[in-house]
Amino acid sequence: MTIWLISKYASPQKYYFGTRHFYLAEEWVKLGHDVSIFTSNSSHLSNQLPKFKSKVFFEIINGIKTYWLNTVRSKSSSGMSRIFGWLHFEWQLATLSTNDISKPDVVIVSSLSLLSVLNGYRYAKKYGSKFVFEVRDIWPLSAIELGNFSPANPLIYLLSLIEKFGYKNADVIVGTIPNLKEHVENVIGKTDKCFCIPQGINLDFYSEQEKLNDEYIKTNIPSNKFIVIYAGTINANNPLQVMLEAAKILKESPVHFMIVGEGNQKMSLMERAKDISNVSFPPSVNKNQVNHLLSFASVCFDCFSSSLARYGLSRNKWIDYMYAGKPIICSYSGFQSMINECDAGSFVSYNDEKALASEILRYLNFSKDELEDMGKRAKNFVIENRTFPFLAKKYLHLFAQ
Q1: Which terminus in the chain has less CB density within 10 A, N or C?
Q2: Does 286 share its domain with 379?
Q3: Are residue 241 and residue 192 in the same domain, yes or no?
Q4: What is the pLDDT of residues 167-176, one digit of tens each?
């Protein structure tokens, strides 16, 4: 098959970080398919993408035909500059000469930007291709519920029309989140064309892990403690105050809490924790050192606050925790997946410090073998169900019939 994949934010590992688009495409190429990715050289996430003066820069990356479209760069993840960047990308895509590009059997559009739905559908109709709409972030609902935009806002209203158009006209709808179907059915009614292909794991990345140096371990990781580690971004969506309150309840126990990461709420959280002796904020580590850091955990912790949680999560953080072979306790009141599917941990009600403290004490009383068994189930689950070769075949089956 000839597959076109359109996503403004698709990025290969070659340019600092790899996204699922390229990892899936690599597997499709290995299976003998012809894959072209259309992406932008401008992202607020990285300054390392290709720079060029022409309209398009073409290169082949691990067998993937990659078309970089030259677009203006937004400096942040919000504001009108980001919207203008979306519009510029769509203009470049709409006016791209495709005469020398193999005609697609399927066109996949991966949001964001939601505007790509229009170009993707147009190309699918032009070439008689199947049209696949992949949703990685539910827009404009995210802007309404997290950004406090009114549904009557003209831009939000326009995006809602495009979203509905995409759902109605897609041959297949793919969500990275497990309960997207509920949202889709709220928009267009009953459907049997919505499926979940979650975030995946690149095993090659974990084979290149680095160890923490001895000084870091000696200075920051307490011995003879039951260690609960949170590793990740510290912001409003990950409200770690519940972790501090649980730490206060457990101050006389051998439990120690480590919070490792950066974010706009780190300083205020550190201020709140300054008199809590069993909480520490070790320096952040490189991404390729996280696996070694997690090896010192007895249990890993996560929390998430958002009304969108009712549609579930596909957290890269959970993949990191599970591949490290650690049980997970998650303060979360949304749609449950992954952790409960393999009995590798538990969910407690969001922002309930007493329930969290009680659950940690329950784990404290587990034997070492019981904790290790949970960790093994977690690691086996992601290796068996979240590798890109597995997900790519599952994805391909949705439109290769």
Answers
A1: C
A2: yes
A3: no
A4: 999 999 999 9
